[in-house]
Amino acid sequence: MHGAAAMREIAVVAFAQTDHRRTTDELSEVEMLMPVLHGVLEQTGLKTADIDFTCSGSSDYLAGRAFSFTLALDGVGAWPPISESHVEMDGAWALYEAWTKLLTGDADTALVYSYGKSSPGSVRDVLTRQLDPYYVAPLWPDSVALAALQAQALIDAGDTDEPALAAVAARSRTDASANSHAQVRGSVPQGEYVVRPLRTGDCPPIGDGAAAVILAAGDRARELCERPAWIRGIDHRIEAHGLGVRELTDSPSTRLAAEKAGAFEGPVDTAELHAPFTAQEVVLRKALRLGDDVRVNPSGGALAANPVMAAGLIRIGEAAARIHRGESDRALAHATSGPCLQQNLVAVLEGDPR
Amino acid sequence: MPEVLKAPLVLEFPFTRSLGPVQSAFLTGLRERVVLGVKTRDGRTLVPPVEYDPVTAEEIRDLVEVAPTGTVTTWAWNHEPRRGQPLDTPFAWVLVRLDGADTALLHALDAPGPDAVRTGMRVRVRWAGERTGAITDIACFEPYDGDESPRSTGHSGEFENMVTGIVAPARLDYVYSPGRAQTDYIHALSEQRTVGERCPSCRKVYVPPRGACPTCGVATAEHVEVGPRGTVTTFCIVNIKAKNLDIEVPYVYAHIALDGADLALHGRIGGIPYGQVRMGLRVEAVWSEGGRYPDHYRPTGEPDADYDAYKELL
Amino acid sequence: MSKEPVAVVGIGQTKHVAARRDVSIAGLVREAAQRALEDAQLTWADIDAVVIGKAPDFFEGVMMPELYLADALGAVGKPMLRVHTAGSVGGSTALVAANLVAARVHGTVLTLAFEKQSESNAMWGLSLPIPFQQPLLAGAGGFFAPHVRAYMRRTGAPDTVGSLVAYKDRRNALKNPYAHLHEHDITLEKVQASPMLWDPIRYSETCPSSDGACAMVLTDRAGVARAPRPAAWMHGGAMRSEPTLFAGKDCVSPQAGKDCAADVYRQAGIADPRRDIDAVEMYVPFSWYEPMWLENLGFADEGEGWKLTESGVTELDGDLPVNMSGGVLSTNPIGASGMIRFAEAALQVRGQAGEHQVEGARRVLGHAYGGGSQFFSMWLVGSEPPAS
Q1: What is the rounded distance in angstroms from the CA atom of residue C56 to the CA atom of residue A159?
Q2: Residue pLDDT, tens place only, A266-308
Q3: Residue pair A52/A30 in contact by the 8 Å Cβ criterion
Q4: What is the pTM of this model?
Q5: What residue of A is the nearest CA neighbor of C220?
Q6: CB-nearest partner of A244 from B95, B176, B217
Q7: What sign for the dihedral angle of Cα C372, C373, C377, C383?
Q8: Of C108, C80, C65, C74, which Cα lies nearest the Cα of A238?
Q9: Is A130–C68 a contact, with Cβ atoms under 8 angstroms apart?
Q10: Residue C156: CB atoms within 10 Å
């Protein structure tokens, strides 16, 4: 990292998430989010007044409400006034902003949260609004269609086939049996084609959910958590927007972010990858050089629960939680944004030696 | 337990998007059945032509004409077309690298079935019958038997009657659910009662309730009926009629602190000439027939409230 | 480990207008970014990261536009963030970018905020239907007008004060080639005769709807050493939020605004803002917010802000000029307005403000707010490096 001398040590010290569900009609966004905020505060014994900086991630477009994040702030108890910011991106990027704030020394603790309700709208169609407004969005190519184009490119290149994709799906949901928050758990039929070559099983579930994380620096982290998950490196990169310009069978931005984050400087035992579609896991494994000895998505990943705008933050939280519990020593967490892995974030988390 | 309220929410707008010169040339070209690309400094031809080089970030303007024929570089069979997509019948999404181009264009391929589609197959543009200067001037691609005939000849990008903008209507449908606190509030309103919620921590009564006390960050649940009367704490007189509002101008939009509530809600004042509305005016709700909220608030006839009584509730 | 000092070495903005019909969204942001790079004499390759900000995506109907704009802003292969904190977003965006430099994560960051709201229209974007809620208002003015009335009542200010602000800001705009409204034949009488839109706010006292973009290049000490023109050094910056509506909220002078200013002043070593600060670019979308913010920001005691306005202190040639650029009252691409305030403050201390330059301006405050008066972001910039 540029000019990094003795950089502050910053760790994830708490993580909480909702039980992700297909719909949450009976709850508003803040009603869905609040228990998760209380969860991380309880884990650390902190009150809102002890939090130096708050940052959230969400998308107005998902639920069709402009400024929806201003209502979510009610769940935080922003009184007296707080130092707070918001990105219109997955919470993983809100965590990145909070990490930067802690690095400056202006804050020692940060609350990061994100939430997303995909149930009110048609998320497959909503996501088409991310695409080039002149040449692509008017054709309304939905998110499954774009992922399918990427999957076919991988099949053409010999990098995967339908049985291998089905195996990724099955493994993920089987692993999710041990994750009480996951939406799709256990054995699930691979199903019919949605957009070929992707079948229902290759696609993420549609649902609602929220997550929160608390970051703390140095000794503060040690006070708040027995085994902090230290963020040894974190970086994110974006690629060109046009699908026809990019190499869909690879993820150069993931590789670059991983390099900058120091991911390749040592082996990892766990990787939580934000791959809403099975084929994307194939690409990410390649870009991150993950061998068979790495435990990939023990939480079940985004194939088991995909609360859009929180799913990336959850990968970081899940990896951190494994470190907290002593089930991992060095983990990668990845988050993505945009069509076919256009933008990617990689964090390297480590626990103190046991 | 009241049933979950739901209502449709439609977000729809005909976005008017102005174009940069390269886009203008490309889309006008489509109207004229000419496919243009743009050359980068290192000699690549990008189709569709973008305004800025994805590698160097330079502005690029060097246009070329490419062939309306090309090769599929990847595809995905869409057996259930969705609203707004190029075809109503099953089709393949494709990335097509037109002959002469180094990059691929996203569009639809009209083919009888997935078995008729493969990466590497040859396709050609099927032009729309009526073309306006939009990406949909390419109706879709269709299979084509001919060989590659890369064509990349310089083009000025100028046509008669250049298209300088597109209209891109977009509609998204949602089903909106207000959540528990607001649902309880709405149900009480339908019984002509205004019911807020009290924070267990600070004891303030919030109306409309939001399920969370915004200063304490805890859930609110205790129902507290407020009103039926209240005080106008501040207001303005609205003179501009907005399109979707069914209210005649001028009208008074006021903050009304109902008795028992710890903050003011917003409502319209009626039953009094707007010039006579004042801070401190005592009002009560006038319920509309079968409406989900008070239609407006009218004076009760009580003496005005003392400024000190409501100055914290502005 | 102390923070790296942060400075502005490049500023660019577009000529703000009701509708830009000659460029795509990318073209609009590109124009501001290119100007900022040219001002700094840098190329795209010199930029380590890009931080953009704008208001709700519905205004342009493009969700998460950083994805589409990556190529146009030279961000391919780089980190790119998109901030959204309602109306204060332009300011928050600059602060997020500044933090990246202060934390030494990056050396040189391009930050940009924009709105091309003519692609839909601002009224529609601000008044999207919410089921089960009684539609009472369209647009933002009706929401803020009751607070203005409350201020007038609280302070007993003469009701002409608002028109003085509008008259001043629109005249200042005539000296700013980038400002949207250039009302060459404006007079105080015309301002005061203008129809009431949301009484007590008149049409002449209301911000326009504009398309526009504003960009800055932020860098560290090494970057300043290489820069061709004087830098604007960041002496302090802060963000504060409070809930939109809550029991006991002071809507006229929100606590979050006071706390935010106090934090900035503490960082910058400002003991007496009225004396220590030379000029202010504050977010005034409706004229009365000038006296209200003068109090909120500590330039005047509570209840006295309007006196500074009335006595001419805030005029361009006054003792504490406010909104030399013409302010939000003359130019309002919603997502960009906060950054324009921050950029205009920087222009002043760099001596680059041309006809609207305040002579000898050495420390200038930039201020932005958003939401229902709940999000505040501010920075103080100076012509000299910060003391510590």
Answers
A1: 40
A2: 999 999 999 999 999 999 999 999 999 999 999 999 999 999 9
A3: no
A4: 0.97
A5: A3
A6: B95
A7: positive
A8: C80
A9: yes
A10: 8
